[in-house]
User: What shape does this take?
Amino acid sequence: MNDAAVTHLDLELDGQHSGPERVRVEVQQFLGPHGLSERALYAVELVLEEWLTNTLRHGYDDPAQARIGIHLWLEPDEVLIRFEDDGKPFDPLVEASPQLPNSLADARPGGLGLLMIRKVATRITHERHSGRNHLTVGIGRG
Assistant: This one.
């Protein structure tokens, strides 16, 4: 079967330390044959890294217990990524954007992941039901 004919990918991440890297590699292999722009590939990788890292870090008292579903599919103009987790309730759509520092000297590491996701996404939706967070992020293919 032609790899470009496969238009969806379903993965599960557990709380193992190597999990996000495994997901990143599988997503790159899945997207490779689909001719996405470098910008789109970068945006997908950024969203995966930021969301998975922060879900593991902040969504669970014990990250080893994490089970995160990652579902990717292609539409004509977008790559859609859906994350499903049973971590702490968190709706990124109601979170305020962080206050940006006035200077480089005032800057501190971290805290900008959600802002970066918002900047690269064409759309973001969130639902919480059945004890699970469901976040969908769209990224333009061009």
About this structure: The domain at 3-140 is CATH 3.30.565.10 (Heat Shock Protein 90). The longest strand covers residues 132-140. The chain has a mean pLDDT of 88. The chain is about 30% helix and 25% strand.
